[in-house]
Amino acid sequence: MSNHINSKMSDATANAEASRCLFCFDAPCQKDCPAGIDVPGFIRRMTQRNLRGACQLIVRENPLPWICGVLCPTKRLCASRCPREFLDRVIDIGGLQAYASVEEDHGEMVNPSERLSRKHIAIIGTGPAGLAAISYLSQDGFEIEVFEAEDYAGGLITCGIPPYKIDKKRAFQEIGRILDRPGISVHLGFRIKYPFELLKEFDAVFVATGIGGEEIDKKFLKFKNVYPATEFLKELNKSQLQGRTFKKNLGPNVLIIGGGNTALNAAVSARLLEVPNVTVVYRRTEKEMPAWSHELEMARKQGVNFSFLLEPLSFSGSDGKVSQVTFRQTKLGEPGPDGRRRVIPMGAKRVVMESSSVILGTGRKKIELKWLKKEKVDHTTGRVEGKNVFLGGEVLHGAGLIVQAVADGKKAADEIKRLLQERDNQR
Question: Is it the case that residue 80 has pLDDT exceeding 80?
Answer without folding.
Answer: yes
